[in-house]
Amino acid sequence: MKNSKAKRAAYFGMMVALAFTLSYLESLIPFNFGIPGVKLGLANLVVVITLYSMGIKAAFPIAIIRILLAGLTFGNANSLLYSLGGGVLSLLIMWAVKNTGLSVIGVSILGGVFHNIGQISVAALMMGTTKIAYYLPVLLIAGLVTGFLIGTASQLILKRLPDTEEIKK
Q1: Angle at 20 between CA 68 and CA 121, to 5 degrees
Q2: Distance in angstroms (rounded) separating the CA atoms of residues 169 and 167
C-alpha cells in the first residue's frame, strides 16, 4: 500500500513536470497559424493521457497546477484567466464524455473545442461584451484541428503505456 502511494506521487509529479515542460517548449516555438491566440496545446497531451490512465482525480489537479505554473511563468493575469476558463471547461467536458463510447480522438476534439468556448466566455465576461463571439467560429475550427492532433497523439501514447491500476489506488 505504501509503495503504491509513492508510485502515485511520483507519477503525479512526473506528469506535472511533463505538462509544464511542454508548455515551456510551446512558448519557445513560434506556431504562427495566422490566428491570434491559437496554440497547439501540447500540454493537453498530458491532461488527456492522465484522464484516461488515472482518472479525473489526478487529471484535474495536474491541469490546474500546469495552468497556474505556465500562466505565472510565461503569461500574464489575462492569459492565466483565459487558460483557467478554457482548461477547466475542456477537462470537465472530456470527463463527461469519456465513457460514452467516443474515441480518445473524439474526446480530445471536444476538449479542444470547449477550451476555446471557455476562453471566449472568459473574454466576454472580462470585456463586458459578447461582440468577441465573432471570433468563435475561427477558434472552433482551430480547436477541432488541434483536438484531433492531440487526440491522435494521446491515443498512440495510451496504447504504449504500461498498466496504471497499481498507481490508481
Answers
A1: 45
A2: 6
Q: Which three cell numbers, joined as nine digits, stand for 88?
A: 477547466
Q: For 48-106, write each residue's pLDDT tens digit.
A: 999 998 899 999 999 999 999 988 888 788 888 999 999 999 999 999 999 999 999 99
- pTM of the entire predicted model: 0.88
Contact (Cβ atoms closer than 8 angstroms) between residue 26 and residue 43: yes
Calculate the alpha carbon distances from 15 to 10, 20, 60, 143, 165 in Å: 9, 8, 12, 23, 16
Distances (CA, A) of 45 to 22, 106, 117, 119: 9, 14, 19, 19
Q: How many CB atoms sit inside 10 A of residue 86's CB?
A: 26
Q: What is the DSSP letter of 163?
A: P
3-state helix, strand, coil in the chain (%, to 5): 80, 0, 20
| Helices and strands in the chain, H and E counts | 7, 0
